[in-house]
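Take a specimen:
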Amino acid sequence: MQTVVGEFKLSHPWFCLVTPEGPAGVAVWAVGGESVWNLLRSHFQIINPPQKIGPIKLGAQFLGRLIGKNFVSDEVLMVSTTINRVPVLEIHGHGGSLISQMQRELFVEAGLEEVPASWIGNLVGKTKLLAHLEEVILKGQTLRAIRCLLNQSRVLPKFLAYLAHEIKAENEEKVVLLCDSLARCSIRGLHWVNPFKVTVLGPPNVGKSSLLNGLIGAKRVVVSDIPGTTIDPVQVLTAMDGWPVEFCDTAGLRDTSDYLEKMGVKLAGKKAEGSNLILWLSEARSEPSEALIPSDFNNQKIPLITVRTKLDLLGDLNPETPLNTVFVSSKNRVGFDKLQEMIIKKLLAGLPDGEDNPTACTGELIKSVCEMRELAKAGRFHEALEKVNYWLDN
C-alpha cells in the first residue's frame, strides 16, 4: 500500500528540507521513495576513498559529495533509513540560502519532487496539529517565543481532546466557553510570531533616531542635526523582555512646504494607525503644551507614552514626571530602563496572563476554533466534532 499525503504518494521519488530555511550553518535534507537511490546514484560520489555504491542497506552511512550539472557540494553525510517502510536517505551538510537552493536544483535535476517538511510528520504518526505547530515554531523570533510555542505542543492537544469530549456530550455552553477562552488567549499568542509594533513620533530633531538607537542597543538609525533627515519610516526588529518588538522611526512632524517632508509626515501617520503603541517625543526643556501629541495622531485610541528627551540639557533640574511620561537622555543613557518597563507594560496590558494557557496562535487554527463555536451554537455538533478531529488525526 502506498502512503498518500494530500494528492502525493510518498513512495514516488521526493525530497524536502527538514531544517529551517535561511542562513543556517547546517542543513538536513530527506529524500525518499522506492526508486530514490537509482535516481540519486549518479549525483553522489563517495570520498576517502572514492568507490561505487551498490544497493544501500538500512543504517548505512557514507561520506561524499553531491554532484549536479552546475554544482559540487562540500562534504555531506548520507544515512540510509526508512519511515513507515518508505526508503529515506538523510543528507547532512552545510546550510545557507544559496547552498540550499543549489542542492534543491540538483534534486529536481535527479527527478525528485519537493514536498513540504510537514508531510513527513504524517509518515511518522504526527497529528496535523503537531505538524502545524512545528511550522509555526520556525517563525518564532525570540527564545521566549520559541519556548512558548514548544509548550503548545504539550498543552494544545490535551485542550482539543477535552473540547472534543464536550462536543460529543453536546454541551453547548461548555463548548462555547472553551472556544472563547482559546480565541482570547490567541491575542497574546499571535505576538509570539508577529512582533508588537511601536511607532516613534515627534517634531524634527527631538531625538527620535537617537532614542531608537539607545533602545535597541546599537546604531541602526542615522542621526543628524539637519531637520527632515528621516523621510521614509525606518523599521528595526528587536526583543524586549523576550517579546519580538518592531520599532518604527518616522519623519519629524511639522508644517512644511517641502514635498518629501510632507510625504514623510503622511507615512508617519499611516504607521501610527497600525501600531500597538506610540512613543510621542518632545524635548524636556519645552513647554508642557508643546509636549502634547497632535490629535490627528491619537484619534485611534492607541496606547501612548510621552517621552521627554534631552534631559541632560536641563542641568540640575529634577522635573516632575506626569503619568505615562518618562524623561530620558540618550547622551547620558538615563531613563532607558524605566522606558523599557513602561513599553512592555503597555504592550501586554489587557492580554491574558500565563504562558501555559492553550493558545491557537495561528490564523488557520483560530478560524477553525471560531467555526467550531458557531457550529455548536447551531446544534451541529457532528460537524464541530469533524473539525476538532481534523487537528487530532494523523
About this structure: The chain has three domains: 4-125, 130-193+354-392, 196-330. Confidence is low (pLDDT under 50) at residues 1-8, 221-231, 254-262.
